[in-house]
Design goal:
Blueprint: H1 22-39, H2 47-56, H3 59-71
Helix pairs in contact: 1-2
């Protein structure tokens, strides 16, 4: 028998009570990058934020936001 894969997503967040998770995705992405800036790239403390935004955000958005951060044009507060 193959190993079981456990799928998880970000926990419910009272700040985002509706079914549209766009803002939740964006906020978790920002929280991850703020954590990296505060704790450093080597920190394991930011892993949960990465897991959250990766489970909520479409890959195309993440790629676009990463490009925008690299170019200095990201619209959010990092």
């Amino acid at each position: 028998m193959a190993d079981e894969i456990e799928l998880k997503t970000a926990p419910a967040d009272f700040r985002f009570p509706t079914t549209n998770q766009t803002r939740h995705c964006f906020t978790r992405y920002i929280e991850f990058h703020r954590c990296l800036a505060a704790k450093g790239e080597e920190s394991n403390e930011c892993a949960r934020f990465a897991k959250f935004y990766r489970s909520l955000c479409p890959g195309e958005w993440i790629e676009k936001w990463n490009e925008q951060r690299e170019n200095g044009t990201f619209p959010g507060p990092l």
